[in-house]
Design brief:
By secondary structure, this protein is α/β, with parallel strands linked by helices. The chain is about 40% helix and about 20% strand. It has a single domain, classed as Phosphatidylinositol (PI) phosphodiesterase (TIM Barrel, Alpha-Beta Barrel). It has eleven helices and eleven strands.
Length: about 250
């Protein structure tokens, strides 16, 4: 009887993943795509394709909506001195990124993403000037995600609590992670969102939030981590995902 109990205990211990195995499972997210690839630029479709070819978990990108309701991909609120949310699309559609690619629309970006289902689309809706503008961005993003058939492939993130709340209300099954870093794991879970996506400084200040989040069933992602030593720190801390401008370096570390 005693031997049988010991054998069962040994089998259980062997079944458990080792700490090294758990650490090695960190997911790689290319920040604004793999924009350091030849011919790419931040938030370009070329950067998305490069991230797909690299085989990372996901490619992150930023969404704004124009005054007439067209969702476009760009990090800053302005492009070449023009504030995106204040002008109709026709005033910016011919503007180009640093690689010569035209400013991508969200529709075109999602269609490119749909051609490679293995790469998750990490869709960040930027905070806009008013709740009504944020509402328009949420509505259009959800519409296009459904229309292009990438709902199961898309995860949402935002610094805006209003945007996260509306995404969850309108698409309850969607993955929605909060970026701002001012909510505890318990508060994020209470809001019904699915993850914490915080700056490295936040998780260094509150390393206990990683374990707390996982025990609550939340995902954890840290941004933007580019140095190997910092990648290793967060990997050992048990972080679920790392967003980086150096996806090749992170993949090699893993």
């Amino acid at each position: 009887m005693k031997n049988r109990i010991l054998l069962s205990l040994l089998c259980f211990l062997l079944w458990l993943p080792s700490p090294a195995q758990e650490q090695a499972a960190v997911g790689v997210i290319a920040h604004r795509g793999y924009w350091k690839a030849d011919g790419a630029a931040e938030n370009s479709i070329a950067a998305l394709i490069a991230a797909q070819q690299l085989g990372v978990y996901g490619s992150e990108f930023d969404v704004w909506i124009t005054a007439d309701g067209v969702a476009v991909i760009h990090h800053n609120a302005t492009i070449q001195g023009v504030r995106i949310e204040n002008v109709p699309y026709r005033e910016i559609e011919a503007l180009t990124l640093s690689n010569g690619e035209r400013l991508p629309t969200l529709e075109a970006y999602l269609k490119a993403g749909a051609r490679h289902k293995q790469t998750r689309l990490i869709l960040e809706i930027k905070p806009h000037s008013t709740p009504s503008r944020e509402e328009a961005a949420v509505q259009e993003a959800l519409r296009l995600v459904r229309a292009t058939g990438v709902a199961d492939q898309t995860e949402y993130i935002s610094f805006s609590a209003y945007i996260c709340r509306r995404l969850h209300e309108l698409s309850p099954r969607a993955s929605v992670a909060y970026l701002n870093g001012d909510m505890t794991p318990a508060e994020v879970a209470s809001a019904g969102w699915t993850g914490l996506d915080y700056n490295a400084s936040v998780f260094r200040k509150h390393p206990e939030w990683i374990g707390q989040a996982h025990r609550l069933g939340l995902t954890t992602n840290v941004w933007t981590v580019n140095k190997p030593a910092d990648m290793e720190y967060f990997r050992r801390a048990g972080i679920g995902f790392i967003t980086t401008n150096e996806p090749v370096v992170l993949k090699e570390l893993r």
